[in-house]
Amino acid sequence: MGNGNKVEFFVAICALFSSLIAIWVAWDQSRVMRAQQDGMVFPVLQFDGFVSTEQDEVSIGFRLENSGVGPALIESVQVVDNKEYVSSLDPYRDTLPEGFTISWAGLVGRAVAPGNGFDVLRLQWDNDEITREELNAAAFAWGDLDFEICYCSVFQKCWIETMGVTRARSVKTCPQSETDVFEEFGLARVTTPAPVSEEVSQ
Description:
Radius of gyration: 26 Å
Helix content: 25-40%
Oligomer: single chain
Number of strands: 11
Low-confidence stretches: 35-39, 192-197
Distance between the termini: 76 Å
Structural class: alpha+beta
């Protein structure tokens, strides 16, 4: 190989190497930009149970909040009892003392804005309609339930939030819920004499 050919070969190798570096830099910048975009719309759902005692009334229920910086698109809600999935909350109605009012908010298909929070389910009694022992027993019975809420960001990054777990678990996709357990539980109460109210969508 002559000197000219050697120079041409060396120049070609350098050009190829430079192209590879340029491709890698472009890919890395694209990856960083995607990470920045994801971070700007990163939702963080928190789902917890509560017991509230006030002067005239007491209540138990569940509250959902989005403490992230982007909307959370809720795809499914699953109920877990003793590590087994259950399809309805109706069997747990019998653990509740009579005389309660109920408010609820459906979750499946809802978009929860950042900084927004609301009661998903609130069961409320007048103080003279329930004893402290009955309240504690009801809270304890419902406290055995776990809830898994699968939600996604606007860029289809998805997570499963499990009640009582500090950090949500990342998943590729969310299973689709055909029904909403909270909505079904609330609507079933419509047929009873107790007054019913529905949460206004947030």
